[in-house]
Amino acid sequence: FSFFNLFIKFARKYFLTKLMEKAQTHFANRAQKYNHSSNWVDDHNLIQKIYELSEAGEKSTVLDIATGTGLIAKEFYGKVKWVTGLDICTEMVKYSENCMDEIIFAPAEKLPFPDNTFDACVCRQGLQFVDLEKGIAEIYRVLKPGGITVLCHLTAYNEVDKLIAFKIQSLRNPARRNYFLPEDISDALNHHGFIDTANVGYISDESINQWIDNGAISKEQMEEIKETYRNAGADFKRIHNIRFTDNDIFDEMLMMIAKAKK
């Protein structure tokens, strides 16, 4: 029995390490193109909304999980007391100059900070690469009592469109571990003891040519994504307001911003 438990522990650690390495490789390949890989990446209205929902002020300490090229952290930098960026990909952070006070390289499932450290914790498009339950538990732990978390992620609209939406997301980002419906993250926040949970939807109109040319997937994968759009059913096309042009496809993607308090 003891040997079996030891084996399971080792296998789990090995599996999680491989998943993290896959994400690191994926984003290392994307780093150079990342800031222009989607409309939502540098959408100031979206970034400003995350900042406002955090309720961070000049005395606040802020943690930006999966900081990447630092575009979210940059919105807080100079407006708050201290901004810490956290990521696992050194290549991405090379493009985050003058965006934060410090950068820490560590996984979201094991945040290297004491309990009750931050006034606010934000994350945009990072939790799909981590163990969601562990990540949310760690955010709760490092937030001060009364602290705010704001978590923004791409989701399917509902059960009707998720099959095609999740297929497209997996083709575009093979390192992804989680695929979200609109309530998934807020439900996880509630499960881990957060209060005053609220969801804010945000529509990002995306050029698929731009969205798939991310530097990390093959031409074959890019063409499979386009073919999936062409062959999608009427309900998916209606929900996402899919528009075809001679050279491109446009998709109104749903991002859900979950806000909650410790």
* Computed structural class: alpha/beta
Query: For the terminal residues, how far apart are their CA atoms?
Result: 39 Å
Low-confidence stretches: none
Share in helix = 25-40%
* Envelope shape: globular
- Sheet with the most strands, sense and barrel status: 8 strands, mixed
Number of strands: 8
Report strand %: 15-25%
How does this structure look, described?
By secondary structure, the chain is of the alpha/beta class. Helices cover 40% and strands 24% of the residues. Strands 1, 2, 3, 4, 5, 6, 7 and 8 form an 8-stranded mixed beta sheet that branches. Strand 1 (61-65), helix 3 (71-76) and strand 2 form a beta-alpha-beta unit. It is globular. It starts with a helix and ends with a strand. The model has no long low-confidence stretch (mean pLDDT 92).
Show the helix and strand layout.
Blueprint lengths: L1 H29 L13 H11 L6 E5 L5 H6 L5 E6 L2 H4 L8 E4 L12 E7 L7 H11 E13 L6 H11 L11 H8 L3 E13 H5 L6 H13 L2 H6 L3 E2 L4 E13 L1
Parallel strand pairs: 1-2, 1-4, 2-3, 4-5
Antiparallel strand pairs: 5-8, 6-8, 7-8
